[in-house]
Amino acid sequence: MSKKRELLPVRRRDNLVVAGRCSICHRPFESSLAIPQVASRQIVSDFDVHTCDEDANQAAARVVRESTDKV
Ligand SMILES: [Zn+2]
């Protein structure tokens, strides 16, 4: 699989993504930090270092529906 992975925004605050999900493995990324700038940076760096699990195929259909619903 050479599909490019992206961090899909789930929740934003002040135009920053404070909760997101991987477009490949659908792993959720959240931060409990109160400051959006810091939370956003933490989420992006967590996303950058994570390893995708390829066994999330059931989740895929659900997430695709959610994201098309939103955009
Ligand atoms: Zn992933």
Q: Give the count of helical stretches.
A: 2
Structural class: alpha+beta
Uncertain residue ranges: none
- Arithmetic mean of pLDDT: 84
Globally, the shape reads: globular
> What is the percentage of strand-forming residues?
15-25%
Ligands, ions, cofactors: zinc ion
What Rg is obtained from the alpha carbons, in whole angstroms? 12 Å
Helix content: 25-40%
Strand order in the sheet with the most strands: 1-2-3
Distance from N terminus to C terminus (CA atoms, Å) equals 25 Å
Q: Largest sheet, described in full? A: 3 strands, antiparallel
Counted up, domains total 1
What series of H and E elements makes up the topology? Answer: EEEHH
The count of DSSP E runs of length 2 or more, i.e. the number of strands, is 3
Overall description:
This protein is of the alpha+beta class. The chain has one domain (7-70). 39% of the residues lie in helices and 24% in strands. The chain has two helices and three strands; from the N terminus they run E-E-E-H-H. A three-stranded antiparallel beta sheet has the order 1-2-3, covered by helices on one side. Strand 2 and strand 3 (28-30) form a beta hairpin. The model has no long low-confidence stretch (mean pLDDT 84).
